[in-house]
Write a structure and sequence with these properties.
- Keywords: Lipoprotein, Signal.
- This protein is an alpha+beta fold and about 120 residues long.
- The chain has one domain (about 20-115).
- Helix content is about 25%, strand content about 25%.
- It is built from two helices and six strands; from the N terminus they run H-E-H-E-E-E-E-E.
- It is globular.
- It starts with a helix and ends with a strand.
- The model is unreliable at about 5-10 and about 10-30 (pLDDT under 50).
Length: about 120
């Protein structure tokens, strides 16, 4: 009985410990977020950051996340709220990656970014 309780406690601890990622979910390539990708790509082009990204913006990955202070938020009121993050595939051998673009899921507007590394 004690062994089962110990096993259950360790499992619960591992699950809680690994959940600090704050990723809400992945969105597959066959989703309805084409407009989100398009808005993010337009922002990338506007800022001149598109030189490091592959031009196939339609294959960009979209994830739901909780905004925090590790992102450069254009509006700080989004901190702690669910947002969409769009990541573009980089060209080969680039020194600095393409920034992640943060999108408001309701308005489809850019609300921030995270500089590429």
């Amino acid at each position: 009985m004690k062994l089962k309780f110990l096993y259950l406690a360790i499992t619960a601890f591992l699950i809680v410990g690994c959940s600090n990622n704050q990723e809400v979910g992945n969105i597959t390539d066959t989703d309805s977020y084409e407009n989100v990708r398009e808005v993010a790509w337009a922002f990338i082009e506007e800022k001149g950051w598109n030189d490091n990204a592959k031009k196939d913006w339609k294959s960009a990955k979209v994830k739901k996340m909780i905004a925090n202070n590790s992102y450069e938020l254009l509006d700080k009121t989004y901190e702690g709220k669910e947002i969409l993050i769009v990541s573009f595939e980089d060209k080969e051998n680039v020194v600095v990656g393409t920034p992640l673009i943060l999108i408001d899921p309701n308005l489809n507007e850019v609300i921030g970014y995270m500089p590429g590394e």
